[in-house]
Automatic annotation (TrEMBL):
Record-stated family: Belongs to the asparagine synthetase family.
Catalytic activity: L-aspartate + L-glutamine + ATP + H2O = L-asparagine + L-glutamate + AMP + diphosphate + H(+)
Domain Glutamine amidotransferase type-2: 2-213
Organism from which the protein derives: Pontibacter diazotrophicus
GO biological process, one term: asparagine biosynthetic process
GO MF term (any one): ATP binding
Pfam families documented for this protein: Asn_synthase, GATase_7
Full protein name: asparagine synthase (glutamine-hydrolyzing)
Gene expressing this chain: asnB
Length: 634
């Protein structure tokens, strides 16, 4: 696990960016504290920071060049099947000078070019310079587990694992107002956009080939989903369960590959509990870690995590957090964001990763299972809309009541009203509009109202519709069912929210977070299953629960989904209150000229009232953006 960055200059003027390369490497030091290096030759410069998990010796440090010096690689990620690939290469006469997956990858690319990516089991972002061709090849893994950002102008091509590296390399700091508009709806900026105009994220499953001053984009992997084929899957439910059991054990075992100990996050939900149950078969005294909020029982899942830890006799650690603990880690979290990212649970992931990173370099997680098997409440809601019936019609007809009752994410009753209100609103919409409503935190008109007229005018509506349309393409296909919603989540929510969160928060603390559910073999199988095996009335992730029911404490089987959240309202009204008074002050907002002063003033006032739950997410989005703005743009 590492951080990568680089410069490919087209002109003499562009070569000046090479002078900034050491600063870009330094900006990524948290991603790789074990070693760092720079390769520079003429118009090319590659930089690397290393977190050593496989072959932790100097012989595997990067940038890594081939024997004759033709190819040089910088690579962020892990190739779990590298030993098998190495044997195949050795049988063809290839000799190795290290025990690393890095060298295997480089030799494989030298022989097979882009086609080698299809043989890789793991996750990665990479850049390979070919001195003979004077070309640069870049690629990102299938699902976006590892980030890669880039920028091109007439003089140069720049890339890096995080926006901070590109800022260090001197990209223009010009705000993209269309991205800001999306951020105010989603809490993140979805790829390929970033918050800076001209800087892009490489899409999952995409590669770039740079030669001369031309950049060619290619798609090397597409999500293997055919809605009609999934409906007519030939396997019986029992056969589907048997295959899932075999596959998941295999991919968990693969992700334990390392030359250092690997632990596991254990939230108390089905997903991470299954991973721990399977990993405990392979690792004696597996170390597991969970986080809880003893002062806020609605957000605390540690009791369920403890049941699993006790069953499998893991060496379990509970990190029990107060508002003061969250505040103590607030600035560390915000400083790790070189692009605004306002999923508030990142604060808890950062705090947990900071603790775990002091004794481990790698952990397993349960990320991706919800998007594969239908684990979110919106998936159950979609199932109910598509099924119809008297209950659905009754909830829709009572929308007038849900609109006026108090809503909150901070209590059972308030959260239920919130869910009923969103369900009633979405149930009356077309699938595309319903998906966008349930994927966002505020509607388009509300996000637009937060901006000044000048900022609103800077939003490019055509560009916004194109970006939104790319996501909604999944829910526009024939034979629409719940699987199409999962396809859309795989394009939007998983890579841009969930995987961004665990990458940034883990790497901020030099911790690699690996999820077995993101193995491409398991993903292909899951998307071949009909929606009926995933969600039924009152039961989400049905096939996952049924397949592994015998491995889990019975309390977990019928337990409803609980999102991994923090008590945001309580935090913003206590230790975080001063932050709002500073970053959302009338003076700061007015001098900045981006947001409407009166709209922000209203949010700040409601935040200090009994209606804070209505604006807590809006306030957090603004606070995260403001902190970023002051640090990078002011």
């Amino acid at each position: 696990m590492c951080g990568i960055t680089g410069v490919f200059a087209f002109t003499e003027k562009g070569q000046k960016a090479l002078e900034r390369l050491p600063a870009a490497v330094a900006a990524l030091q948290h991603r790789g504290p074990d070693a760092g290096g720079v390769f520079s030759e003429g118009h090319i410069g590659l930089g690397h920071r290393r977190l050593s998990l496989i072959a932790p010796t100097a012989a595997a440090n990067q940038p890594f060049s081939s024997e004759g010096g033709r190819y040089t690689l910088v690579f962020n990620g892990e190739i779990f099947n590298y030993k098998k690939l190495r044997k195949e290469l050795e049988a063809k006469g290839v000799t190795f000078r290290s025990d690393s997956d890095t060298e295997v990858l480089l030799h494989l690319y030298a022989r097979e070019r882009q086609e080698c990516l299809k043989k890789l089991t793991g996750f990665f972002s990479l850049a390979i310079y070919d001195a003979e061709e004077e070309s640069l090849f870049l690629a990102r893994d299938r699902y976006g587990e590892k980030p890669l950002l880039f920028y091109k102008d007439a003089d140069k091509f720049l890339f890096g694992s995080e926006l901070s590296a590109l800022i260090s390399l001197g990209v223009p700091r010009e705000l993209d107002y269309t991205s800001l508009y999306q951020y105010l709806q989603l809490t993140y900026v979805p790829a390929p956009a970033t918050m800076l105009k001209g800087v892009k994220k490489l899409l999952p499953g995409q590669s770039l080939y740079v030669r001369g001053s031309r950049v060619q984009e290619n798609v090397w992997y597409r999500l293997p989903f055919d809605g009609e084929k999934a409906i007519h899957n030939p396997l019986t439910y029992t056969q589907q369960q048997a295959k899932l059991k075999h596959l998941l054990q295999q991919v968990v075992t693969d992700r334990l590959v390392a030359d250092v100990p690997v632990g596991a996050f254990l939230s108390g939900g089905i997903d991470s509990s299954v991973v721990v149950a399977l990993a405990a078969r392979e690792v004696d005294k597996l170390k597991t870690f969970s986080v809880g909020f003893p002062d806020q029982p609605f957000f605390d899942e540690t009791r369920y995590a403890r049941l699993v830890a006790d069953k499998y006799k893991t060496e379990h650690t509970e990190l029990r957090l107060s508002n003061a603990d969250l505040f103590n880690n607030l600035f560390g979290t915000l400083d790790s964001l070189s692009e605004p990212f306002a999923d508030s649970s990142a604060l808890a992931v950062y705090t947990l990763s900071k603790h775990v990173g002091q004794e481990m370099k790698a952990v397993l997680s349960g990320d991706g299972a919800d998007e594969l098997f239908g684990g979110y409440n919106k998936h159950l809601a979609e199932y109910r809309v598509l099924s119809g019936g008297a209950k659905v019609e009754a909830v829709k007809k009572m929308k007038f009541l849900w609109d006026v009752l108090p809503m909150s994410r901070n209590s059972f009753a308030g959260n239920k009203v919130r869910q009923l209100q969103r369900f009633a609103t979405g149930a009356g919409l077309l699938p595309q509009d319903r998906y966008w409503l349930w994927a966002t935190w505020q509607q388009e008109e509300d996000a637009l109202a937060l901006l000044t007229p000048e900022s609103q005018a800077a939003v490019q509506n055509r560009l916004y519709r194109a970006r939104k349309g790319r996501v909604l393409e999944c829910v526009s296909r024939k034979h629409y069912d719940l699987n199409h919603v999962l396809c859309a989540d795989w394009r939007l929510v998983l890579p841009n929210d969930m995987l961004t969160k665990i990458d940034l928060m883990g790497m901020a603390n030099s911790l690699e977070i690996r999820s077995p559910y993101l193995d491409h073999r398991l993903v292909k199988f899951a998307f071949s299953l009909p929606a009926s095996t995933k969600v039924e009335e009152g039961l989400q992730k049905k096939i996952l629960r049924d397949t592994f029911r015998g491995l889990l404490p019975p309390e977990l089987y019928r337990r409803p989904k609980q999102g991994f959240e923090i008590p945001l309202k309580a935090f913003l009204q206590t230790e975080g209150q001063g932050l709002a008074n500073d970053y959302l002050s009338d003076a700061f907002i007015a001098s900045q000229g981006i947001f409407d002063v009166q709209q922000v003033q209203r949010i700040r006032q409601l935040l200090n009232s009994d209606k804070a739950a209505l604006v807590q997410t809006k306030a957090w989005m603004l606070l995260v953006f403001q902190y970023w703005w002051r640090r990078y743009m002011a």
